[in-house]
Amino acid sequence: MNDMKQSTVLVTGAAGFIGAAVSDALMARGQPVVGIDNLNDYYPVSLKKARLDLLEHRHRGLFHFRAVDFSDQAALAGALAPLRFDTIVHLGAQAGVRYSLENPQAYVASNLAGHVNMLEIARGRELEHMVYASSSSVYGGNASLPFSVEDRADHPVSLYAATKKADELMSETYAHLFRIPLTGLRFFTVYGPWGRPDMAMWKFAERILTGRPIDVYNNGEMSRDFTYIEDIVGGVLACLDQPPADDGAPKAGGSVKPHALYNIGNSRAEPLLRLIAVLEDALGRKALRNLLPMQPGDVPATYADITALTRDTGYAPSIPIEIGVPRFADWFRGYTCL
Is 315 a catalytic residue? Predict the structure, then answer.
């Protein structure tokens, strides 16, 4: 096997929040990155292009970007045909729980057909490893906290969650049939500089700085495992460097195939109202709060049990919201000029 830290990595969703950050970290340690993204307009394309410009500026000769939709099998094969890569970090997806209520077809195309297309690329090229994005949303309304990868995850409360669980099941099948080393990461709430405008942290900051009320669901009786982007990136790279062995031994998540499933989070359930208070302090302004009932497809609490990921990779998140939120706030004010 090649030295994982020298091999070329294909990163899907390279213009996205986590994809751009992972690409940056890979190239910072000397690994060439082939990045693909369809640059859709789910949120402003200008933000995606700004992330790509930053990667090009920092890493020039190491970054090779192709604008392509990985749910289009023919276009994907054509774009990748002349390119060599050894591993995949598949982070591209149609994101968002609430948007899946409005546009289910986008989730079927990207998260189901697109995931199969990436599995087929890994199979056809006999790649060393594919790490892929799942989501904490697969746990649905699980009442047992913290969420463990051994918990049942077959009662999703949103279509987004259902597609991510389906990705895990399809990956298990490919690991069984074709012995492809696969690692699925159930991301908990990720935040930080260059984040997404559809996520609470961005929405809150924008509204606080423009004097508009923030929407606080379930009357604020919610908690989230908020995880800073730097911690997430460290976990993704640690997993990429350690593909699951095809040795018949049980892996995290229960598979005896070369397929592991991990929670990747901060392992702290922060009350939403506490997060808002920290953000208010970082921005120097108080929020006007519009208290609302729970949204369809949402859950009151998320909390990651990261025991398996720490055991297998040494993953140890180190950035609490008291440090991460002010870093986001500083970046946000600079990027938006608010």
Answer: no
